[in-house]
Amino acid sequence: MTNTETKVVIRGLYKIFGPEPQTALEHVRNGVGKTELLEQHGHVLGLRDINLEMGDGKITVIMGLSGSGKSTLIRHLNRLIEPTAGEVLVDGVDVLSFSEDQLRDLRQTQMSMVFQKFALLPHRTVEQNAGMALSVRGENSTPIAGDARKWLDRVGLGGFENHYPHQLSGGMQQRVGIARALTSNSPVMLMDEAFSALDPLIRTDMQDLLLELQKDLHKTIIFITHDLDEALKLADHLVILKDGEVVQQGEPQHILLNPNDPYIEDFVSDINRARVLRVRSIMTPIDGGIPSDAHGEVDYDDTLESMIARSGGDTTHSYVVTQDGSPVGILEMTNLVKALVPRVSSTAGARVL
Fold this sequence. Notes:
Largest sheet: 6 strands, mixed
Radius of gyration: 23 Å
Strand content: 15-25%
């Protein structure tokens, strides 16, 4: 990972489920795969040699199909699951070396978690649920109430402080979960399929809310999803897992344009590329002066969909691409058309999420 400091680093992480994981680990390191490990040795391969860097203040999205290991991976970060081998470093310190007191402090002050099923206490009010992390730390109730109300306001739940979870919709309950994570004031947020249980429109609203909050807060967010559209929308850095292994990772636009595996080609084949891809991904850097026949200026982060509308579909047009008002590239509409055509995987077929 470049151009940013790392907050969380994972090195050589393995997780094997079964009665003799260390024995099974040797088989895995000698090349035994997930299916063979289960059939011949009675162990389940959860994670295999995971190496990741998660940028400080960035959103890292980890995605894959069911059984790919994504939820297993996120639970290693705060040691809800103990690894078979490897390192998990937060600010350069190995979490796996922590004592019980250090681990408790990590979970209470350094990492907050937003769950798929909301995990609100039904007998506590919205305000009490939002302030739960501070309450567990034993902080004074008056500041807790103030902080909880502040973040409830930020997530659009001002006025609902005295309601109970059963009086709220699913989307509102998840907003309480996000407010609770923010009230804890932890620098790292773990979000495990946080929006998967929500209706599509509410899910979109929650994604927009998260991005809006992130502009101001710059949290280090590790977000788990099985939805590629969601991953492409949220991720600064995208990690795609299959059978417990990293298949590809990098900047989402680059992965979409340059899938390195038939598995990923299948994933990206159905994406509305015009809506997802940005001008910056297909522009040509400026080499010399600005061409005199350009049809105007466009922004670095404009979507290809907006450019198709602007050009009226005329493939002879070209535009000067600007970032923060300065020219940085040239967009040729012929290149845009090429980018809309996905590579076809030789193994393309139906997949079940």
